[in-house]
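Input (CheW-like domain-containing protein):
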Amino acid sequence: MMTQNNLHVLLFTLQKELFGISVMNVIRVTNIEKLIRIPKAPAFIAGAINFEGNVIPVVDLASKIELGTTTALPGTKVIILEVDHDGDSLEVGIMIDEVLDVAQVEAASLLPPPLDNMGFNTNALTGMHKIEDDFYMILSARKIFEKELASLVQ
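Output:
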């Protein structure tokens, strides 16, 4: 039985920072083959990809959390996420630099995210997790896309 106390997180790098996101939200990790341009999309939308016959928007996660911008290169990875919101779900890709590992994190061991001085918007963080000497910022898929999810419901 999976308890709420343990999170399985996919660890990855973005702009030389260490992040994690719950595997509960991860559908697949894929390479960017070809980005489809989306006219008039918000700045943080890098484009879209064709994933199993569906067009999925790809978000420049760095841009979305105010950490800079990611250039889509052939080796750039996309984590395809499924984000639930009040029974609806949104499929979206986030561009990252590199997938590192999957780790099990005890929810109780998560440190609260620092409130400021991180150089980016920390509202999307669930908390910080320390592995050896490194701190990973654990993102909440739901918090990253809060505004977009809210607009789905209207």
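The longest strand covers residues 6-14.
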